[in-house]
């Protein structure tokens, strides 16, 4: 879409256009649960349990899933806001925090994050121009103040009007624009948007989505976009990754995921969106119940106790992420797609 | 429709705290028996204030209320003491957005529902408990007997919202007010709750006012939609007509700004600017500063609410005339 402009490689582009900007391998994070001293074993919340993905340069990867599926934890682990228990990050061909690899400080300058709560993520005692200039000044960049005013102008806030204001004097949409400007102050290559438009009203959300699209084309940004709103993910993303209880259960190009979902959970998630047509209202709920407890995830396939196609094999064997035949970029973890899995319905499922 | 169950006339609500905010301005609404009205609007548009005023939940010291509200033949703004207690929960009850905050954390779900039944109907403990259990089963809570003795924090978000609905319906109210009941829930759970509300409404024949900012959710449950902006109702009509042929530029903008699959690869049609400050509303139409059709008159005079058939509209320069739409 925006790639038609064939971006000229930036001077800091190390690995060339074919090298994914970010590769994440086997990322894990288990949070210990506080338990009484009488409990024999310590319990853990399996927040992120072996997640692999890569984000190509200049593309947007959308991560979707219900609350508690580990999308935000994944984002925080990638941004190194908390240490991972296991896994590695490769940024443009260089391992992060590895021997002879990219130093954490360098990595952080290349990656910025925008959070859901626009108010909580701004310092209430700094004017918004100071907030935007703060990071660059700490890193010793000279024209930080001048640059802050330029950025404010770019995100649609007139600097002569807004530069001296404090966060509480702005509306939610304006504050989120400030957060975006701050994220851009380092000229990052990867921006993580964690539910960045979820708290905004629909009319303002559309403005911010448009701004994000423009900035991405202008600055050749790569986005990691986390949202529970499937419409917004469809609109913004090039690739989509669906998570369930800390694991990736399906991923692929956006048209494949939305057009031919291969995992029963993805299908259910997509059909749970309210219809906009009063003559064709949703008649039956695609899924029963809530997501299960991440402390004791079910054995085998974690989706099996909500899945309409569950079978004995789903409890005994964990389905692996397999590619869907011709579409090597489309991966799904379900026994239904594997004729050799022993699932009785597997052969009926035809491959598109 | 004979006499409407709910009739609100020229309701104006002002909050006088550190600053004065006009939350509702001359709102008029009618709701028939068994009708489901979706109240659609963005934050600060006055949809929740309308519901809270219907239950008289605002502290009287800081609120100035003018206008008339009649529900089931009662003058709501004149209710006092025991009458008000009976009205709240008996005639009208409410489902809140955050069931985690609406329940008392130190009592079990079952205790809280049976308490409501006992207070309103004066029955003994055992009868009330049986009614509470039946309500939990009615809202399709699995293993209702076990959940009866559970504390609110032991239930998941979707379960808690079901329990909240059970509590609200325990005394068979004639009107249910639902204040964004599905906003805090995941999409897969949201659709379950919407279907449950629709089913219960059909069974009991109660009227429902469903407040939401999500057009999709409103379309799923409502017969009629009223769109609010800055404390006024700007457009109203049957769901199908309103969604297919919006007349007010704000409704049209809201529909266009709602992201759908057909938008991929194109910029969205966003409404510029942001909603006005309720402490300093513009003199004319409050949407005029953001409206592409606005003329001098829009900035000067407030457009009156005109009615044609089932639809009402308040706009000087509608996208299409009411006559054309119907």
UniProtKB/TrEMBL annotation, chain A:
Q: Entry's NCBIfam families?
A: oligo_HPY
Q: CDD domains annotated for this entry?
A: ABC_NikE_OppD_transporters
How does the record say this protein sits in the membrane?
A: Peripheral membrane protein
> Where would you find this protein in the cell?
Cell inner membrane; Membrane
The name on file for this protein is: Glutathione import ATP-binding protein GsiA
* Keyword hit for Membrane: yes
Where mainly located?
A: membrane
EC number(s) on file: 7.4.2.10
Q: Which GO terms describe its molecular function?
A: ATP binding
Q: Which organism is it from?
A: Azospira oryzae
Q: Where is the ABC transporter domain?
A: 33-270
* Summary of subunit composition and partner proteins: The complex is composed of two ATP-binding proteins (GsiA), two transmembrane proteins (GsiC and GsiD) and a solute-binding protein (GsiB).
What the protein does comes down to: Part of the ABC transporter complex GsiABCD involved in glutathione import. Responsible for energy coupling to the transport system.
**Keywords from the UniProt entry:** ATP-binding, Cell inner membrane, Cell membrane, Hydrolase, Membrane, Nucleotide-binding, Repeat, Translocase, Transport
PROSITE patterns assigned: ABC_TRANSPORTER_1 (PS00211), ABC_TRANSPORTER_2 (PS50893)
**Which InterPro entries does the entry link to?**
AAA+_ATPase, ABC_transp_ATP-bind, ABC_transporter-like_ATP-bd, ABC_transporter-like_CS, Oligopep_ABC_C, P-loop_NTPase
**UniProt-listed Gene3D superfamilies:** P-loop containing nucleotide triphosphate hydrolases
- Which stretches of sequence are listed as region Disordered? 275-299
Give the similarity note: Belongs to the ABC transporter superfamily. Glutathione importer (TC 3.A.1.5.11) family.
């Amino acid at each position: 879409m925006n790639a038609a402009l064939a971006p000229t490689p930036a001077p800091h582009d190390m690995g060339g256009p074919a090298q994914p900007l970010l590769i994440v391998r086997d990322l894990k994070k288990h949070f210990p649960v506080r338990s009484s001293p009488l409990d024999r074993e310590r319990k853990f919340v399996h927040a992120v349990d072996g997640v692999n993905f890569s984000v190509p340069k200049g593309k947007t990867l959308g991560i979707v899933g219900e609350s508690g599926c580990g999308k935000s934890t994944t984002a925080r682990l990638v941004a190194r806001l908390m240490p991972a228990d296991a896994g590695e990050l490769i940024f443009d061909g260089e391992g992060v925090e590895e021997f002879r690899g990219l130093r954490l400080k360098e990595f952080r300058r290349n990656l910025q994050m925008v959070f859901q709560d626009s108010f909580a993520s701004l310092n209430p005692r700094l004017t918004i121009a100071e907030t935007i200039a703060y990071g660059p000044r700490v890193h010793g960049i000279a024209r930080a103040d001048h640059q802050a005013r330029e950025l404010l102008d770019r995100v649609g806030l007139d600097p002569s009007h807004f530069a001296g204001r404090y966060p509480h004097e702005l509306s939610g949409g304006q504050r989120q624009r400030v957060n975006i400007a701050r994220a851009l102050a380092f000229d990052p290559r990867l921006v993580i948007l964690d539910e960045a438009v979820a708290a905004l009203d629909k009319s303002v959300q559309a403005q911010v989505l448009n701004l994000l699209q423009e900035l991405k084309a202008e600055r050749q940004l790569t986005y990691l976009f986390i949202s529970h709103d499937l419409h917004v993910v469809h609109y913004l993303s090039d690739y989509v990754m669906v998570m369930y209880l800390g694991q990736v259960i399906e991923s692929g190009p956006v048209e494949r995921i939305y057009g031919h979902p291969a995992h029963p959970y993805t299908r259910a998630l997509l059909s749970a969106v309210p219809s906009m047509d009063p003559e064709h209202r949703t008649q039956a709920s695609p899924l029963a119940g809530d997501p299960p407890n991440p402390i004791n995830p079910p054995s085998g396939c974690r989706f099996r106790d909500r899945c309409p196609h569950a079978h004995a094999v789903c409890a005994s064997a964990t389905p692996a992420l397999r590619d869907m035949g011709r579409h090597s970029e489309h991966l799904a973890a379900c026994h239904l797609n594997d004729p050799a899995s022993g699932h009785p319905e597997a052969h009926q499922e035809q491959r598109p | 429709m004979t006499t409407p169950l709910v009739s609100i006339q020229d309701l104006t609500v002002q909050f006088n705290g550190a600053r004065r905010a006009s939350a509702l301005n001359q709102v008029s609404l009618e709701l028939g028996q068994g009708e489901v009205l979706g109240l659609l609007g963005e934050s600060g548009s006055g949809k929740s204030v309308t519901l809270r005023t219907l239950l008289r939940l605002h502290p009287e010291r800081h609120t100035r209320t003018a206008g008339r509200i009649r529900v089931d033949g009662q003058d709501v703004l004149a209710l006092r003491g025991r009458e008000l207690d009976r009205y709240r929960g008996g005639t009208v009850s409410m489902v809140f957005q955050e069931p985690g905050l609406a329940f008392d954390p130190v009592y079990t779900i079952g205790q809280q529902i049976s308490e409501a039944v006992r207070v309103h109907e004066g029955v003994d403990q055992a009868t009330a408990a049986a009614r509470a259990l039946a309500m939990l089963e009615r809202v399709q809570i699995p293993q209702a007997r076990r959940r009866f003795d559970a504390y609110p924090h032991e239930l998941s978000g979707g379960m808690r919202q079901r329990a909240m609905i059970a509590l609200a319906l325990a005394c068979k109210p004639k009107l249910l007010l639902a204040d964004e009941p599905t906003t805090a829930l995941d999409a897969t759970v949201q659709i379950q709750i919407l279907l449950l509300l629709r089913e219960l409404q059909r069974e009991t024949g109660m009227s429902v006012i469903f407040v939401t900012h999500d057009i999709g959710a409103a379309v799923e449950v409502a017969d009629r939609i009223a769109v609010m902006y800055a404390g006024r109702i700007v457009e109203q009509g049957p769901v199908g007509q309103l969604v297919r042929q919006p007349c007010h530029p704000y409704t049209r903008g809201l529909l266009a700004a709602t992201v759908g699959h057909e938008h991929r690869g194109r910029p969205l049609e966003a409404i510029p600017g942001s909603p006005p400050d309720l402490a300093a509303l513009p003199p004319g139409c409050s949407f005029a500063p953001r409206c592409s059709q606005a003329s001098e008159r829009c900035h000067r005079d407030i457009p009156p609410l005109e009615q044609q058939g089932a639809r009402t509209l308040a706009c000087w320069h509608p996208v299409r005339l009411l006559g054309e739409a119907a």
